[in-house]
# Entry
Amino acid sequence: MTAIELVRGDITRESVDAIVNAANSSLLGGGGVDGAIHRRGGPAILEECRRLRAAHLGKGLPTGQAVATTAGNLDARWVIHTVGPRFTPEQDRSELLASCYRESLRVADELGARTVAFPAVSAGIYGWPMEDAARIAVETVLATHTAVLEVRFVLFDDRAYEAFATQLR
Ligand code: AR6
# Structure
């Protein structure tokens, strides 16, 4: 049974086995939570991302998939990078967002991670409406078979926290 916890705060301050990063396909950094993870985690994360790009991820990490690297100086063993879809009203990309949570948990299982922290993937720069992002995140984690014992959603502000809390009620 996977327990779901909600925390309001900065995901780079969490102590867990794996911290999930809302990355982009390049894996070479960006703003938002991605920028914060690379800043606090230090250069070892980017070095490993560059190695992945030079090896089997030459074209980058496709949307909806996940890959792990070291967590550098973060208080975690791994960072699991996933690429959320950009929100657009013209097309339903919900399945790709659900895939981010499923694939991150699959990678976590491969690693043997028991505690995993997630941000609200796609709900920042990629524009996904927070309430819907929270619904997809919670529903997908609840529906995924995993050996992860604790999924911790780490929400940056009150609005995000409330959106996730509403889904769990
Ligand atoms: N801890 C927890 N949550 C955070 C933190 C933090 N330190 N910083 C931001 N958030 P975003 P996306 C929240 O934009 O929408 C990057 O440039 C933020 O308030 O980080 O998937 C990547 O390289 C929001 O609720 O990710 C991509 O190009 C949530 O995390 C692009 O942004 C996700 O916001 C990905 O956009």
In short: Residues 3-168 form a domain with the Leucine Aminopeptidase, subunit E; domain 1 fold (CATH 3.40.220.10).
